From TrEMBL:
Family listed: Belongs to the SCC3 family.
Cellular location(s): Chromosome; Nucleus; Chromosome, Centromere
Spans annotated as Disordered: 1-100, 1065-1167, 1182-1226
Residues covered by the SCD domain: 310-395
Record keywords, A-Z: Cell cycle, Cell division, Chromosome, Chromosome partition, Meiosis, Nucleus, Phosphoprotein
Biased composition (Basic and acidic residues): 1079-1089
Quaternary context: Part of the cohesin complex which is composed of a heterodimer between a SMC1 protein (SMC1A or SMC1B) and SMC3, which are attached via their hinge domain, and RAD21 which link them at their heads, and one STAG protein.
Domain of life: Eukaryota
Biased composition (Low complexity): 1-23, 1090-1103
Polar residues bias locations: 1188-1207
Organism of origin: Chrysochloris asiatica
GO molecular function per UniProt: chromatin binding
Chain's role: Meiosis specific component of cohesin complex. The cohesin complex is required for the cohesion of sister chromatids after DNA replication. The cohesin complex apparently forms a large proteinaceous ring within which sister chromatids can be trapped. At anaphase, the complex is cleaved and dissociates from chromatin, allowing sister chromatids to segregate. The meiosis-specific cohesin complex probably replaces mitosis specific cohesin complex when it dissociates from chromatin during prophase I. Component of cohesin complex, a complex required for the cohesion of sister chromatids after DNA replication. The cohesin complex apparently forms a large proteinaceous ring within which sister chromatids can be trapped. At anaphase, the complex is cleaved and dissociates from chromatin, allowing sister chromatids to segregate.
Annotated protein name in UniProt: Cohesin subunit SA
Length: 1226
């Protein structure tokens, strides 16, 4: 076995073929010819050696050279003596042959074998015409409109032909047949490859060994693959690699024929002298000689393709080309492992595992999967595995999910077929992936885990061709190992994700509910408390997975639905689990009812049952036992999870369509009666007693919690719980003597009572008396909640706020939408006091600075995260009230002013609120943003005073907030033009609203607010800036100011409105002639109509300046420094794509014109077309602005129709604004 001569990955990815060495000074055609002629001698190099040359003797090379001319020599194109090409024909030499081959392959109307047979017939009739047709087929497949004529073929070398075709290549579009979208081109690549494969297959007994067609075709494809034109390089590489794959199959067949021939020859020689046939021996020798010559020919062609194409293109700059090379070399190794499965070829796949493109890495892993899946080949992969194993293990954490999936599957094959290769450390890198959010990746990791842990101990054994049934002992071992892995690894807290990961590979074992339940019900089991809880969670997770057939919450799967077979399996599994668990569920509840963590998931099992089996299988006795256990669990526990699970389980059974409905109704009534009587008795004792015993308080709170949980899922209106709970709450508000643990469930009970009453009256036209009664209850409860907002206990305050938010939203004017006008008397509007208290509560409980989080593992960190979620819930409730019109929209300023300070905690909620508010009313939303800044400024001014205000950290934070507000206007500059101007005008008024005393030269108290306004200046049009400057000057005329000492905020604000503020605007502009004429015409039309105020300003045209053209295909108005940064970024991106600078042996050697496509060429239009469209856009926009300025002499434009979406014209105008570049998410 040969060894890897270089363990390092290639240093760069080249976009063109290497250049250098002795042939560096040769012309391009001579270098191509020299490369092909030295294909054999160069292949003996130490770094890229091939295995074919060892089989070729020097004598055979001489014979092959004598048999046919060099492949790349122009002489090889001339016909052999006596051929049809030499005898001439009726077609003129300058006339290109007709080429219907490309259209036939594109249409794929007939099978490829018939198409190739037709071409072979035409080739046999006229070789030059047939071969030119084949050449032009490949040229057309590259997307080139040029053709190769007979005269070009006779007189020009391959490099000259390629240079000529490159000059004729159409670069208006970056698309070519392999990349063109559309249904007609969708299957072209498959048809193209099928044609090449069929061509080799049909020629393997005839033309394949003729020196003329294949040698020249390989020479042409090699030359095209060296081209700098992407279409030539991509298409020819695909053709060459497909041709190589087909030749490998032919070589494999020849190898098999040689082996058969050798066996026949040995068998004939072993016969006695009387039985031996000399003629037979002689024919076998001739056949062997012929096969040997054919194999040498095939190996020569394969070596030329590998040397001329693969070695250079496997590191091409185009990822599609690299992926083609890696995919094909993987197929060569699998089909012809004798020659290709060596380290000298494997190193290319190992190097490319580090490729930066997803598709290339994916092809590498798939190629390796095909090799490692064959146990017979793994012995030859030991050196490669030891060298690249670390890289394969690290790819489990690849950022692309499909690559990570293939990496895990590859490691699974290593685990199966190469024992001892993966260490424990390697395996530990895969274990956490079992809990990944992507289901495909988690499932692959689950399969790896199964083969590592479970299969050696409890896997299915195959005996006499049949799978042996798993014994109960092996199933117990399986669940014990599963418990051990989940508990000891401590990677996750929820076993449902582990069950889902193992479902595809160990689903039958996980659905062994008999073993699971028997393990739980054993009396002498050696399971601890954690093991029991985990085993119950595994049971519930497997039941849920079988019943619902979808992964747990948060795990992403790309599938949309189940197949018919999967739905059938799902239905069968649901029946099986129901039949098995119905008798055992009461027993499980009886055993684990004392433990809340175990009782709650067991009660969830009922939601996955096929409950009709209780009726059809006559299992009512088990239902009675279940109802008894359910009542005992509810009476025992007060934990919300257990009570909620019990209420939902009873709700699942409480359905009129079941025949056992009456029994469930009786059990529910019995349970609620018990709880209600206990509540009434304990409530009277509490109301009459002056001293509250701790046990009595606990008992009353527990009863209220149980009733509240059941009131959430069941209609308990007929038990009339509203009045006693209201009396309890009234005493709590009036006296403050009722403990918090009693008040919280009482508030929830009244809340559910109001909602169930609303459900009754909204079913049909209810009498007005019921509506007024409900409205009275609603108002009374809202008053109680409003009083609770000022309670000393924060839990009561938060609960009251949440209930108030929900009720105000439910009973808002939106409740009458959809044909519910009869509910209009129930609409409730909060008064100003309640709105104020809600806003104050938000400031005191939501916008507070939390402590710093640690590593996230401590109990304190978990509590902080839970509190943050609670605060986010409170803020979301308040924002919903704003957006649905329940609260005044101006109250949103209390939220928006904390946008920047609490961006990490509530940024997504505030951003969504801001977006929705803008969609409702753009103008009002803009005023609210200004109001938020005014409030913050006023608060800071009252705390710190006007001196040195702009240097305070709080003021700097306000500037950041103003900048974020400015970014929130988005790229619709024309649409927001009036809003931004209005904001500046109102801000100027506010900054000058509090003037200093007469005779004082001190600046106004609010003048520093102008610095905040300067953050919105980039959103202004050029002419609006000048008009705002004039407006500011008029406003400052009434303010006394020290001569020669302008105030700093005024200077800063004027500088933001100055035309020199934006360097791109101050730079000389490049106008097209049509634009100059339009500008001059508009200025002449306006003439003397220009107002004096506009003359006093800088007298700038109302037309926005035209952006200068840059070297890219997009026109922008960037400052000079920004343009330099963009150019540096573009050059760095190009360097990154091309890799480090070429070494002397890697420089491009194409001397023809370079035809690289610009980045925009792939969109279907060239650079000139792009610039033309941009010029037309700007001219249309100039007309719009000119019409606006002519139609009004005022500085404020009329408002566009309110819409959250800009028109195409408005969006194009953004190209004129340099501030729209590099906008970060606000």
């Amino acid at each position: 076995m040969s060894t890897l001569r270089s363990s390092a990955s290639p240093s760069s990815v080249t976009s063109s073929p290497p250049k250098g060495g002795p042939s560096a000074a040769l012309p391009a055609d001579e270098r191509v010819r020299e490369q092909a002629s030295q294909a054999y001698s160069d292949s003996l190099s130490s770094d890229e050696s091939s295995d074919f040359e060892a089989n070729l003797s020097h004598n055979v090379k001489r014979k092959r050279a004598a048999k046919r001319p060099l492949r790349t020599s122009p002489v090889a194109k001339h016909p052999k003596k006596g051929s049809r090409m030499a005898r001439g024909h009726h077609q003129k030499e300058s006339e290109p042959p007709s080429n219907d081959l490309f259209g036939a392959v594109k249409a794929a109307k007939s099978d490829m074998q018939s198409l190739v047979d037709e071409w072979l017939d035409s080739y046999k009739q006229d070789q030059d015409t047939g071969f030119l047709e084949l050449i032009n087929f490949f040229i057309r497949s590259c997307g080139c409109k040029g053709i190769v004529t007979l005269e070009m073929f006779k007189k020009m070398s391959n490099s000259e032909i390629i240079r000529h075709l490159t000059e004729q290549f159409n670069e208006d579009s970056g698309d070519y047949p392999l990349t063109t979208p559309g249904p007609s081109w969708k299957k072209f690549q498959g048809n193209f490859c099928e044609f090449v494969r069929t061509l080799v297959y049909q020629c393997q007994y005839s033309l394949l060994y003729d020196g003329f067609p294949m040698d020249n075709l390989i020479s042409l494809l090699t030359g095209l693959s060296d081209s700098q034109v992407r279409a030539f390089r991509h298409t020819s590489t695909l053709a060459a690699m497909t041709l190589m794959t087909s030749l490998v199959k032919v070589a494999l067949q020849l190898s098999l024929h040689k082996d058969n021939n050798q066996r026949q020859y040995e068998a004939e020689r072993s016969k006695g002298p009387g039985q031996r046939a000399p003629e037979r021996l002689e024919s076998l020798l001739e056949k062997r000689k012929e096969l040997q010559e054919h194999q040498e020919d095939i190996e020569g062609m394969m070596n030329a393709l590998f040397r001329g194409v693969f070695v250079h293109r496997y590191r091409d700059v185009l990822p599609e080309i690299r992926a083609i090379c890696i995919e094909e070399i993987g197929s060569w190794m699998q089909s012809y492992s004798t020659s290709f499965l060596t380290d000298s070829y494997l190193k290319y796949i190992g190097w490319t595992l580090h490729d930066k493109h997803r598709e290339v890495r994916l092809k590498c892993l798939k190629a390796l999967k095909g090799l490692y899946s064959n146990r017979d080949l793994t012995a030859r992969l030991e050196l490669f595995t030891s060298r690249f194993k670390d890289r394969m293990v690290s790819m489990v954490m690849d950022k692309e999910y499909d690559v990570a999936v293939e990496a895990v599957r590859l490691l699974t094959l290593l685990l199966q077929n190469m024992e001892g290769v993966l260490t424990d450390t390697d395996c530990e890198s895969v274990y956490p992936v079992v809990y990944a959010s992507n289901r495909a990746l988690a499932s692959a990791a689950g399969e790896f885990l199964y083969w590592k842990f479970f299969f050696p101990e409890c896997g299915t054994r195959v005996v006499s061709g049949r799978e042996r049934h798993r014994s109960p002992g092996s199933q117990r071992t399986f669940f014990q190992l599963l418990l051990s892995f989940f508990v000891e690894s401590e990677l996750h807290n929820h076993a449902a994700y582990l069950v889902d990961s193992l479902w595809d590979c160990a689903g039958s074992q996980l659905k062994d509910w008999e073993s699971l339940t028997s393990l739980l019900l054993e009396k002498d089991q050696n399971l601890g408390d954690i093991q029991e809880s985990t085993l119950i969670e595994i049971l519930v997770s497997s039941v849920r997975q079988a019943s619902e057939a979808h992964p747990p919450i948060g795990r992403v799967t790309g599938r949309k639905g189940l197949t018919a077979k999967e739905r059938k399996i799902q239905a069968e599994d649901k029946v099986k689990l129901t039949e098995h668990l119905i008798p055992l569920l009461p027993q499980l509840l009886a055993k684990f009812s004392a433990d809340a963590e175990k009782a709650a998931p067991l009660l969830q099992l009922l939601s996955y049952f096929d409950l009709s089996i209780y009726c059809t299988r006559r299992l009512e006795k088990h239902l009675e036992l279940l109802l008894q256990q359910l009542q005992e669990v509810v009476v025992k526990h007060t934990e919300p999870a257990v009570l909620e699970a019990g209420a939902r389980a009873l709700c699942q059974l409480y359905k009129p369509e079941f025949t056992f409905f009456s029994r469930v109704d009786f059990a529910r009534s019995q349970l609620v009666d018990l709880l209600t009587d206990r509540f009434q008795q304990e409530l009277e004792e509490l109301l009459q007693s002056s001293f509250l015993d701790e046990d009595e308080v606990y008992s009353l709170a527990a009863t209220l919690k149980r009733l509240s949980a059941f009131y959430n899922a069941h209609d308990l209106t007929r038990w009339e719980l509203y009045e006693p709970c209201y009396r309890l709450l009234r005493k709590a508000v009036d006296t403050g003597e009722v403990p918090c643990q009693v008040v919280l469930p009482a508030l929830t009970l009244v809340y559910f009572s109001i909602l169930w009453t609303l459900n009754h009256v909204s079913g049909s036209d209810a009498p007005e008396k019921q509506l007024l009664s409900l409205k009275e209850r609603l108002v009374g409860f809202c008053e109680l909640c409003q009083s609770c907002l000022s309670d000393v206990d924060p839990e009561i305050q938060e609960q009251a706020f949440i209930l108030l938010s929900d009720l105000l939203l439910i009973f808002s004017p939106h409740m009458t939408v959809g044909g519910y006008d009869f509910l209009r008397p129930l609409v409730f509007f909060p008064d100003a006091t309640l709105q104020s208290e809600l806003a104050s509560f938000l400031m005191d409980h939501v916008f507070i600075q939390p402590g710093d989080l640690g590593c996230g593992d401590s109990q304190e960190d978990h509590l902080q995260i839970e509190r943050l979620h609670q605060r986010r819930r409170l803020l979301a409730g308040f924002c919903k009230l704003l957006l649905f019109g329940v609260l005044e929209m101006d109250a949103a300023s209390d939220v928006f002013k904390h946008y920047n300070k609490f961006y990490n905690d509530y940024g997504d909620i505030i951003k969504e609120t801001l977006t929705r508010a803008r969609q409702i009313d753009r103008s009002h939303c803009c005023r609210i943003l200004l109001l938020s800044l005014k409030q913050l400024y006023t608060e800071l001014l009252q705390e710190q005073g006007p001196q040195g205000l702009s240097e305070l950290p709080a003021f700097i934070e306000m500037r950041d907030l103003a900048r974020r507000f400015a970014l929130s206007f988005g790229p619709q500059q024309l649409q927001n033009r009036d809003l931004v101007v209005m904001l500046h005008k109102e801000g100027i008024k506010f900054s000058l609203s509090e003037l200093p005393p007469a005779g004082s030269s001190s600046q106004p108290a609010n003048l520093a607010f102008l610095e905040l306004l300067s953050e919105f200046s980039p959103r202004l049009f050029h002419q609006d800036k000048q008009l705002l400057l004039s407006y500011l000057e008029k406003c400052l005329q009434s303010v006394p100011q020290a001569a020669g000492n302008p105030w700093a905020p005024v200077t800063t604000y004027c500088h933001s409105l100055s035309p020199l503020e934006n360097t791109a605007e101050a730079r000389p502009q490049i106008y097209s002639r049509s634009k100059k004429r339009r500008a001059e015409g508009l200025s002449r039309l306006k003439g003397e109509d220009t107002s004096s105020s506009q003359d006093e300003s800088l007298q700038l045209s109302s037309l926005p300046p035209t952006p200068p053209l840059t070297s890219t295909a997009v026109k922008s108005r960037l400052p000079l420094r920004a343009l330099e940064e963009v150019e540096e970024e573009e050059s760095s991106e190009l360097e990154l794509a091309q890799g480090p600078p070429f070494s002397e042996s890697q420089r491009p050697r194409c001397t023809g014109p370079q035809h690289f496509h610009s980045p925009l060429s792939s969109s279907g239009a060239g650079l000139d077309n792009q610039l033309t469209r941009l010029r037309l856009m700007e001219e249309e926009e100039d007309d719009v602005l000119a019409i606006q300025d002519n139609s009004s002499e005022e500085w404020q434009v009329t408002d566009k129709q309110p819409s959250s979406y800009s028109s195409p014209g408005e969006h194009r105008l953004d190209l004129l604004d340099s501030t729209e570049l590099n906008i970060e998410d606000f």
